[in-house]
Amino acid sequence: MTRTNNPGTHRLVKANAQAGADSLKAMEWTDAECDVKSELARHLNLGQYIKPGYHGPWWTAKEKRLQGKLPDAEVARRTGRTIGAVRVKRVELGLPNPASRAWTAEELALLDTAPDGKVAEQIGRMRSAVSAQRWYLAIPAARWFKPD
């Protein structure tokens, strides 16, 4: 055995690796830092190393029953999961997000009257939400509109 190839060294390396991982998990990342890390992961093609299959604790029946009844953030808080994981499971179960407001008939009627950005301003929704709803309902984009 050598100084670097022995049980004591392996134990220390493993303990230090775990301490480093724990400190990274405890960090609060800004959106900009997350974007930089995501871009780097895409550039390095790190997705190739993700193994298919199980990646965490299974959802219990009790946790699944919270889906669609509470906002995603509340389900995440109660289950100890990320909001993204909760959203993915809710969509997988085919349940609506109770925190989102339903489209009214008046809002839907505006979808083909003006460009998406203009409609979004009028009804207080994001432009991407207006575009997605218009696309979902197969309403063509308003290329022009007549002023009043």
What can you see in these coordinates?
There is one protein chain. With 148 residues, this protein is mostly helical. Among the domains are: 59-100; 101-148, no CATH class. Helix content is 54%, strand content 0%. The chain has 8 helices and no strands. It has helices at 7-26, 31-43, 61-66, 72-79, 83-92, 105-109, 116-123, 127-136. The longest helix is centred in the first third of the chain and has 20 residues, at 7-26. The radius of gyration is 23 Å and the shape is elongated. The N and C termini lie far apart (87 Å). The mean pLDDT is 87.
Keywords:
8 helices, 148 residues
Short overview:
The protein has helices at residues 7-26, 31-43, 61-66, 72-79, 83-92, 105-109, 116-123, 127-136.
Helical proportion, percent range:
40-55%
Counting DSSP E segments of at least 2 residues, the number of strands comes to 0
Write the H/E string, N to C: HHHHHHHH
| Most strands sheet | none
Rounded mean pLDDT is: 87
Low-confidence segments: none
% residues in beta strands: under 5%
Distance between the termini: 87 Å
Structural class: mainly alpha
Shape: elongated
Write the layout of secondary structure elements.
Elements (H helix, E strand, L loop, with lengths): L6 H20 L4 H13 L17 H6 L5 H8 L3 H10 L12 H5 L6 H8 L3 H10 L12
Helix pairs in contact: 4-5, 7-8
